[in-house]
Structure formats: C-alpha cells, structure tokens
C-alpha cells in the first residue's frame, strides 16, 4: 500500500512538473525574443568566410560580391539539405581574380525560389549584396541561407528603346 501511494505521489509530481515546463518552454521564450529584436548582419569578406567557415557557423552575415550565375550546386545534399523544388543556389565570382570570371564554388548560397524569381534578370558581373545565415560547414565549405538579395549595380543596364521616325 505504501509503495502504491509513493508511486502515485511521484506520478502526480511529474505531471505537475511537465505542465510548468511546457508553459515556459524554450520555443516560447525564443519566439518572444525573436519578435522583440531585429536581426543584425555583419558585413564580411567572402574569402574570409570561405577560409574559416567554422568561425561563421550560425552567424548572420552580409556580403557584397559580383554575381556569377544561378546553379543547382549543393541542392539535395543530405548533410545540408535544401530541396531543389523550393530553393536555387547562386554562385558569386571570386574577388581575388578580377580579370577572370571564376565562381567561388566553396560557398553555397541558397535562395528561396520566390526571391530568385524576383532577380531573374541578373547577369554575370552584376554587383549584388546579400544577407544570410551560415547554416552548415559540410565538406568544409560554407553553406548559406540567403534572407535578402539586393542588386547594387548592373553590368549591362537595360537600354532605352529609341523611337525611330520613318
């Protein structure tokens, strides 16, 4: 009889503890903190990030670079999964080779397809700025989820059509 009352008391106390814990769960606390604070991005050099990807893991960064091309590089890779039906990756040009167009393939930058479609007119050499978070260092590379992409300058701006009178 004593054992049953002890077990019953333990079960009741565990149940009460679970209710208190569930009311102050970390997800509730972190969502309140996230709602109250703006995300801060630190401007960094792309080559520094590639040289030390572990230093930037889980950090919000801002990079200014030259766009190279849209790609499927890194998509659907299990250790750093970003599905190809929701994301597209972009490559930027290596800043240390200004006289050649060589992509910085050690940096995998992922855009949601909606964001990529807004910037579909990007050409190689256009200067861009993107904000994102380094979410993985799989294969010793830098894997970034881009939150925002802004075109700074176009290499070949669209030409205005001249009206020709005949």
In a few lines, what is going on in this structure?
This protein has 166 residues and is of the alpha/beta class. The protein has helices spanning 2-23, 26-36, 46-51, 113-118; strands at residues 42-43, 60-71, 87-92, 107-112, 127-136, 142-153.
What structural category do the secondary elements indicate?
Answer: alpha/beta
Reported CATH architecture of the largest domain: Beta Barrel
| Integer-rounded radius of gyration | 24 Å
Helix fraction, binned, reads: 25-40%
| Mean pLDDT metric | 83
Strand order of the largest sheet: 2-3-4-6-5
The shape is elongated
Strand residue percentage: 25-35%
Q: In words, what does this structure look like?
A:
Helix content is 27%, strand content 29%. The protein is α/β, with parallel strands linked by helices. The protein has 2 domains: 2-36; 42-153, OB fold (Dihydrolipoamide Acetyltransferase, E2P) (Beta Barrel), CATH 2.40.50.140. A 5-stranded mixed beta barrel has the order 2-3-4-6-5. It is elongated.
Structural topology:
Layout: H1 2-23, H2 26-36, E1 42-43, H3 46-51, E2 60-71, E3 87-92, E4 107-112, H4 113-118, E5 127-136, E6 142-153
What are the salient characteristics of this protein?
166 residues, OB fold (Dihydrolipoamide Acetyltransferase, E2P), five-stranded mixed barrel, 4 helices
